[in-house]
Amino acid sequence: MGRISEHKRTQAISQWRTVFSVPVIVAALGYFVDIYDLVLFSIVRVPSLKSIGLQGQALLDEGVFLLNMQMAGMLIGGVIWGILGDKKGRLKILFGSIFLYSVANIANGMVATMEWYSVWRFIAGVGLAGELGAGITLVTEVLPKHLRGYGTMVVASVGVSGAILANYLAKLFDWRVAFFIGGGLGLLLLFLRMGVYESGMFRQVEKSPVKRGNFLKIFSNRRMLFKYANSILIGIPIWFVVGILITFSPEFANALGVIGAVNAGNAVMFCYLGLILGDFSSGLLSQLWKSRKKAVLFFQLMTAVFIIFYFNLSGATSEVFYAVCVLLGFAIGYWAMFVTIAAEQFGTNLRATVATTVPNFVRGSVVPVTFLFQFAKSKLGILNGATVIAVLCLLVAFYALWRLEETFHKDLDYIELS
Description:
By secondary structure, this protein is an all-alpha fold.
């Protein structure tokens, strides 16, 4: 009996050592810096725009424009990095994207006009597009299938905590310095490149004559196209919450008559605090339930419930408002899980393309969603307009999840031939 217990203990230690391997740690830290930069703009939106001369309604309108520029960059960058990830390797993309968004971060701290602000947000978006997909692809391919969920759980949980650091530093330093720090952290991370090894699955496909990174192939095959579209659509509610409800939380708090000041930076921090716990929990539940789809459905249902809470905060205190931001963050904590599902849907010759483009198309969905939100807001008001868009996003996500296959036990060592 003692020998059996000792064997189980040794086996468990060995498994966790595998999970906390160098590729997983580097992917997690890369995502940490990625999230820092991604949410920093939402946190410093108001002070940064005021410092270049904007006031009043322009803070919202130009803020939406800059957010859309960043997301447009991510849409384009997602395709570029994804294709390169399947053609040139996961590691090259992982570190190429880090370098680009680090330089853009530093440049963002030097802007003095809206024109240059928008240019560097776009370039930063292109750089940010490669990080998560390349990291998740690498982790799913270097870990055995029974540990993949734990690996992506580590990447997500460590990564989203970058938002908390962004909020802390944005309060401690001027917004320009906060951008400089983000760029410096990214460049520092490049030194961790030593000791990281490429995916064995990619090395095998690299030696074969099969064509890799053919993005258009997805659209020429009906089966792959529907898998791809549904992989994107299950994540739409996540960025509705982050891109609309959290980013513009001061405006929603004002419309709801929330008692006490609500700061976008605090809303982002509390949301991402919940997101850390949510990403950890969704990864753990997917392992315990041995199902990606059950875990995602559970979190989608929670998202619907807490959005209802959010829209019924009329007259609440700012403390209660922030508490609901935490709950919303927890509920959308299936972010890394939905990227994992996308990566597991496709063969090695298309996996990086899919895993990199899917989260960026979801992030980029903020562009049409914000346009729809602004249109609905002009017709129905900010609260009713946002409610209509929320219902639409959730219904689409539920349907898309229903149409996807379960991938928990799926062997990923295969290629897409047709």
